[in-house]
């Protein structure tokens, strides 16, 4: 009996998986009060979108689109909501969820905030890590992130395996651009490992740069796992020759290179080597922004630290008042740096996107909700709301090289859509309360349906 039941459950699960993967979504007509185009800020009100075979077929006034809709089309009426393209998080870490440890652990270890969590993620079974990634991926999608670029900390092939499972309909999640292992110099993240095991541990997470040939080899090793993008963590110790070799090798395979670079020296290395995007870019100078603009290099701003995040993730921990005061002071300094960075970026005319860089457990929030905190943070440091919207839709799509498939609501693009109740241009925090999510023509969430 037990065996029969198990067989039955397995066959139902297989069938369900099969259905999710194979069944084309029925043609759908979405009616909505307002359709906001992030490219221009223009609003079409009211509006309708016809979706067929997972893609947008037509966009226009309800009368026009309805007239062109096939007989028996399924209609979703979103009332007075505002419809937007699905959101893109251009910098995330779905297979890492660092829980801040207790104060003594933090203070008595090198990089005590981050290293213990990262080390635990590496030494645990990769299967467990990918399943956690599946949870965080679903949470991102439920908050409106229909595309994410996963930039490292996924084990050897965790993010590409997660991407493949989502693409074949086995689990729910955003479209993922996977980067595989981060190409980095040894010692930047983990130190004081057991010498007998250090190499084996590091190889689970990183590919090392050792000269130009080694750099090329690192790219090729990642390509074995079918990555979509190469992530390099450049500190001041990576040479332009090494960086150029990485870019050349990746570009020969039509793959873009995203470079973690925070200092002036490392940013210059990335610029000189012709990287496609610079992640963080904290210390970027005006002259460097000019060079980036001239070369078409994107800056991917990661604002999470500019909005009191440090204090928030430490809230559940017992800490001395001195430590709390230090964290608050650190948050204030970060905020000021964020304000200055946004001013420089807007003045420079450089192309930019915004990514969450989320890899931390945020008490009381799902991963998607934690990620969505970047919207009010960007506004609080001086970014106009329409610029924020562009940064996570059209500009992000261009940075990813996916402008032909996502980032706008127009015919031919994937039917990746989100809706909010209010006007995100007037109040960007609306994006923290996404109430309707469609990915590839399938409804992931519709809170409007219950009203
Ligand atoms: Zn990152």
Report on this structure.
- This protein has 451 residues and is α/β, with parallel strands linked by helices.
- It has two domains: 2-85 and 409-450, Urease, subunit C, domain 1, CATH 2.30.40; 87-400, TIM Barrel (Alpha-Beta Barrel), CATH 3.20.20.
- It is 40% helix and 19% strand.
- It contains 17 helices and 20 strands.
- The strands form four sheets. A seven-stranded parallel beta sheet has the order 12-11-13-14-15-16-17, with helices on both faces. Strands 3-2-7-18-19-20 form a six-stranded mixed beta sheet, with no helix packed on it.
- Helix 5 (126-142) crosses helix 6 (158-167) and helix 8 (211-223) packs parallel to helix 9 (240-252).
- The longest helix is centred in the C-terminal third of the chain and has 28 residues, at 321-348.
- It starts with a helix and ends in a 5-residue tail after the last strand.
Sheet/helix structural class:
alpha/beta
Roughly what fraction of the amino acids lie in strands? 15-25%
CATH class value of the largest domain: Alpha Beta
Shape category: globular
Number of helices: 17
Distance between the termini: 44 Å
Unreliable sequence segments = 1-22
Bound molecules: zinc ion
Percent helix range: 40-55%
Overall mean pLDDT stands at: 92
């Amino acid at each position: 009996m037990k065996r029969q039941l198990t067989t039955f459950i397995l066959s139902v699960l297989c069938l369900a998986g099969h259905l999710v993967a194979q069944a084309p979504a029925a043609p759908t007509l979405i009616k909505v009060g307002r359709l906001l185009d992030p490219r221009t800020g223009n609003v079409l009100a009211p509006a309708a979108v016809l979706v067929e075979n997972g893609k947008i077929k037509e966009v226009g006034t309800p009368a026009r689109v309805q007239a062109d809709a096939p007989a028996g089309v399924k209609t979703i009426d979103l009332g007075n909501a505002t419809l937007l393209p699905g959101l893109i998080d251009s910098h995330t870490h779905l297979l890492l969820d660092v829980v801040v440890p207790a104060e003594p652990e933090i203070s008595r270890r090198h990089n005590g905030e981050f290293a213990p969590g990262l080390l635990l993620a590496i030494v645990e079974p990769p299967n467990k890590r990918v399943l956690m990634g599946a949870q965080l991926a679903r949470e991102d999608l439920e908050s409106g992130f229909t595309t994410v670029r996963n930039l490292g900390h996924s084990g050897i092939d965790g993010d590409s395996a997660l991407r493949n499972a989502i693409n074949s309909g086995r689990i729910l999640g955003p479209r993922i651009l996977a980067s595989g292992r981060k190409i980095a110099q040894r010692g930047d993240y983990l130190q004081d490992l057991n010498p007998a095991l250090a190499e084996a541990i590091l190889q689970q997470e990183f590919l090392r740069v050792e000269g130009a040939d080694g750099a090329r080899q690192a790219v090729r090793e990642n390509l074995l796992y079918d990555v979509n993008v190469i992530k390099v963590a450049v500190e001041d110790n990576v040479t332009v020759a090494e960086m150029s070799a990485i870019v050349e090798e990746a570009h020969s395979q039509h793959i873009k290179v995203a470079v973690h670079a925070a200092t002036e020296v490392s940013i210059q290395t990335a610029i000189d080597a012709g990287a496609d995007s610079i992640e963080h870019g904290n210390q970027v100078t005006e002259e460097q922004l000019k060079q980036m603009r001239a070369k078409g290099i994107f800056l991917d701003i990661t604002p999470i630290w500019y909005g009191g995040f440090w204090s928030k993730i430490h809230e559940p921990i017992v800490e001395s008042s001195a430590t709390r005061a230090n964290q608050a002071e650190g948050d204030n300094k970060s905020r000021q740096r964020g304000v200055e960075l946004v001013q420089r970026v807007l003045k420079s005319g450089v192309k930019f996107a915004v990514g969450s860089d989320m890899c931390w457990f945020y008490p009381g929030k799902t991963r998607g909700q934690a990620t969505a905190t970047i919207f009010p943070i960007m506004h609080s440091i001086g970014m106009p709301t329409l610029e924020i919207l562009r940064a996570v839709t059209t500009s992000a799509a261009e940075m990813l090289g996916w402008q032909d498939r996502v980032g706008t609501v127009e015919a031919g693009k994937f039917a990746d859509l989100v809706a909010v109740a209010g006007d995100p241009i007037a109040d960007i925090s609306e994006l923290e309360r996404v109430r309707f999510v469609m990915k590839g023509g399938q409804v992931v969430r519709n809170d409007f349906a219950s009203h």
